[in-house]
Amino acid sequence: MTKESLTNFYHDYIHPLFRNKKSLIGLIILLMYILMATVGASVVPLNMNSNFAERYQKPSLKHPFGTDYFGVDIFQQIVHGSRAVISLTLLASFLAVLIGTIVGVARGYLEGIAGKIIDVIIMVFLVIPSFPALLILSAIFMDKDLNVLQIALLVAIWLWAPLAKQISAQVLSIKTRDFIEASKILNMPLRYILFNDIVKLLIPYIFINFVMQIKGAMEFSVGLMFLGLAKFDPTHWGIMLNYALYQAGALYTTQGFHYLFFVILNIVLLIYGGILLSQGIEEIFNPRVRGNE
Amino acid sequence: MNYVINRVIYLLAVFVIAVSGIFVLVNNMPGDPAYGLAVSIAQQRNMQIEQALEIARSMMGIDPDESLLTRYGKFMSNLLKGNLGYSAFYNTSVNDIISKSLPWTIFVISLATLLSFVVGIFLGALAAQKRGTVIEWIISTVSSIIQAIPPFILAVLILFVFSVTLRLLPLGGAYPVDVEPSFSFEFIYKMFLHALGPMLATAIPQMASWTLAMRGNTSQVMEEDFIRFAEIRGLRDSVIAKKYIRNNAVLPLVASLAIGVGYMLGGHTLVESIFNYPGIGFYFGKAIAVRDFGLLTGLFTLIVIGVIAATFIADFVYSLIDPRVKLK
Amino acid sequence: MLLKKWVALLMVVLFMVSVFAGCGGGQPKQEGPQQTEQGKPEEDKPGGASQDNKQAGELRLAADWPYPFHGNPFGAGGIGGAWWFAYEPFAYYIPKTGEYIPRLAESWDVDGNKVTVHLRKDAKFSDGEPFTSKDVVNTVNFIQAIWQWPYEIEAVEAADDYTVVFTLRSTSFLHTLLTDGGIASLAPAHVYGDFSEAAKEVAELGRQIYYKQVEGQEIPEDMKSEYDEKANKLREQINAFAPFNKLGKLPVVGAFAPVKVTQSEMALEANKYHWTYSQMKIHRVIFKKWSSNEFVWASLISGEVDAAHPSMPKDVVDQLSTLNPNLKIVTVSDLSDIALVFNFRRPLFKDVNLRKAIAHILEKDKVRDVSVWQANSYGEYAHGILKSMEEQWVEQDTLQKLTKYTADVAAAEKILLDAGYKKQGNTWYQPNGQPVAFTLSVYGPHNDWVLAAREVVQQLNNFGFKVEMQIIPEGMRDQVMRGGDYDAAIEFGSAWWGFPHPLTGYQRLYNGDVSKITEFPAKEKYSTPWGELSPYDLTLELQENLRNDEARAKEIIQQLIYITNEYLPVIPLYEKVLPIYYNDGHRIEGWPAVEDAVWSLAPGGIERIYNLLIGTGKLAPAAK
């Protein structure tokens, strides 16, 4: 890419994000968590030694989020757990969007039998209930010692299909538009038509979907931790939530309330950041939706 | 007509591939189907697991030597006869389990869908019309936050608040054992009370997404040319709002309504397990946990049938109500 | 406009769905005296006097059972939590006092391998039929035919209507024979009569095949295929028969019979013909589905359940007691301990020095605090005798000989350094230069184990080992453990279920469940003050001498204690206890004192306690 196209890209896609209130807040929230995941662990030390006498301490300067059932600082755990949560979530959403886009564009472009076959494949993944299927798949691969990328792929397999269906519909409708016909008449190569015309129109759409996938990927990743697909990681938010809810019974004790609260708060806030960003993007690139601000 | 035949062939292909895929997946799942049963026998009967496992194996009559292909053949031929298989853990046919559990799931899901759809449409339209006001801000912010809460967390919170702390709702079950199923007021009242928890846990996240979708659609429709035209024609605002905007904004949602019901069949597992509600989701969770492969395959198949049927109906209904879409 | 249409549609759908659900979700209609009897008062509107009446004499518990309910004790899942209420063993055994409480048997004589059981003459089934030796013989045939268990019974004969003679293969089965709920009364002859002959035939064949197998003989093909054919046919017939579906009731000899079952609740009615009926003050038992521990916590707080035994963190218990002051707790030994078990297929753990060092590193009480705070502490030993049974079985003399594993990092370091291990930086290295690194597996659904594992991992990592934790997913425990697909794990160590005796525990460790998963070399000889001994041989010898030579049995037990403590096939962390919570005075009163020995009957069938307390008239509706 040339420098010029980069500046164009910035003006077309990045700059508006800072102008829209929703996307700005969403970006700030997400950046905060990304920061937490990247440099947080080196700034905040982690002391996992349990201290049963100091369990369930209320939030204080020493323990910003209080301590948990084991008497371990919750804030430290959230920071150290964010890396696993965010890397898996982002990776899985990215892969889902990648697969969904490729399959969707391919379907939109291919006619005849090939298109029909892709249709059937998309539909198969749509009709199989995803979470139970993921559970079974994870049980099958459980003893294979998977790395993050492989786990993310397992998650992404069950997330891409709705996106592919939507994109194929979009491509089909774009395809009939005049300027694509014009490129065809001008005898431009297929590759060029695909990427320059169609993908350009789809970029905001894909962008929105990427952020929206965060919700699904996050829920799946939390669910997977319950099942032990990956090596057990005590600071993973899913595990912390499981501890708080089921092992420590934090709901059933008044002094344990903050334990559950801060874990849920972080999970919800991260997803909320994603939702805000996606709403913002939608308003920017689809001005009809825009509210008066 | 040609379209319908094409469509049927297409969905049939999807069905066969999906069900075969599920069959292979489920049957490759590691884990011993007899183990779950053995644990309960050992605890109940005061014996060592080893011995209980042997009893469990002979109770379930598992034949480990049967090849996958033979089992697949059996499963498919049973499926043709409308028989979804046999549950080793429950010692009964999958059809029996479904006939006892599916009504409850349908009951809760249809209640939840209707409630969330009606309220969601209303709130979404309201938000779109009151653009830029506090009302819009509240509706969209609250909906977005609800969307950010994973549904199972919401379910746990609802259970805790309404059933444990406030004790307004019963803890689990579909109706109390000492009330005979009948058309008596008491039974119907109790049945609703028991369904309320899982219903809310299903409906609230749905409501949020309907609201946001409706708000988006309404705003979009309001910009369409025919609305401008209607305004120019001098029609009253309320007429425009109801007849033109709302109806046109709702149409695309109706199509997703049917599909949504199909998906909920599969996604209801966690909610029903948390509320201990005896629908198919509950059995789904149990089947995974105890490795009841027969039950698992049967329930998957049921859900796939449900989603495919919903998709088919949605396509059809949509083509009927939206004059712009014609069956090709 | 549109909204109105939706509302109308909603009403229609609601109506249709409720009709649908009402018909489909209900029980199959059953006709029987109990139905009409109990149907009446419940049609009254709830509230006021009738509500109190209804609850009089009702005990509410939590349990699990298969639904759709087939009521077939031989089918998968059986009759669930109703088991001990519906079926009776010959006797109950109270571990704390060593006393047998006669149930279906009045008395029994043991003569070598022959056990003669004299049945009580006033036992009757809930349909009024008398219970006789025919029913016992029939039941033994059925369970041998369908469960392929217990082949320890070589023959069973009815000497007269109230005398049954068993011929056993091994006297160590005596305890199970007397106390197992499945041996005496599962298949009443007057209900299962049509299948008696077939069952007898299959049982006979099964025994023959089994004995041939044990003796290492070839089994003829035609015998095998004949057995398979007949056994499968019988199983199919019995599954199809399921009396609860066919007859609409379950004739049982026990004090309560299931009469109505839904997925979430089960109602049991008292057996009018039970020998304790006249003393009962409680005539109805309601089970709530035990779907999860949290669910049971909630039911205990709200008083919806009168008694249950979920594991509960300390803070939750404190909270519950303030929310519901009626709630009382008693803790009894579960007759098992939770232990750190090693996979001896891994060379790392073959070194006893490493195991000893680990035993010194672990602060077991800290593990107990986070895991199950009520559990019994194991103190300094790892001898394989349950803590609550220590005084009874471990001689003072033996105790002197044992290594004390105090939590002592310096001691652990010394052992390792002496054995050639080295510490570089924060990590310990084996003599071969590899770091001391392994994963600790733990079964996810067992909350308390996960908590214990987390603490153990933490302590070992602090010491300088590299330990990671892995959760075994639900349903996978057996496969992972039996397949040896782990390094170290949290598991049941000694467990005295069945026959509460050191033999049971040591059999587990050296020739049973635990040795199968750890592959501890039990057949090797280990040096002891008594010379070179193999624990495997010792358990076999103990089994033989149990009743013949008590002095020798005592001695063997001391030797096994020594080997277990010094060679650490497992490191026990704490003795598991069952915390029993009960609502005293809310609906029910008359619970026995906390120190009452009857509570020790809880492991492996807590319903026996409730049954006993109801049958003796102790539990009664609370006076308000």
From TrEMBL, chain B:
GO BP terms: transmembrane transport
Domain (ABC transmembrane type-1) ranges: 102-314
Gene Ontology terms: cellular component: plasma membrane
Protein name: Peptide/nickel transport system permease protein
Keywords linked to the UniProt accession: Membrane, Transmembrane, Transmembrane helix, Transport
Transmembrane intervals: 7-26, 104-128, 149-171, 191-213, 250-275, 295-321
UniProt cross-references to Pfam families, sorted A to Z: BPD_transp_1
Highest taxon in the source lineage: Bacteria
Residues in the signal sequence: none
Source organism of the structure: Caldicoprobacter faecalis
Cellular localisation: Cell membrane; Membrane
Family: Belongs to the binding-protein-dependent transport system permease family.
Membrane topology term: Multi-pass membrane protein
TrEMBL record, chain C:
Keyword list, A-Z: Signal
Coiled coil spans: none
InterPro entries referenced in this protein's UniProt entry, alphabetically: SBP_5 (IPR039424), SBP_5_dom (IPR000914)
Highest taxon listed in the record's lineage: Bacteria
GO molecular function, one term: peptide transmembrane transporter activity
Gene Ontology CC: one annotated term: ATP-binding cassette (ABC) transporter complex
Domain Solute-binding protein family, first and last residues per copy: 99-510
Signal peptide, first to last residue: 1-21
Chain intervals with Low complexity compositional bias: 28-38
Pfam families: SBP_bac_5
Region (Disordered): 26-54
Record GO biological process: peptide transport
PANTHER family: PERIPLASMIC BINDING COMPONENT OF ABC TRANSPORTER (PTHR30290)
Protein name according to UniProt: Peptide/nickel transport system substrate-binding protein
Species of provenance: Caldicoprobacter faecalis
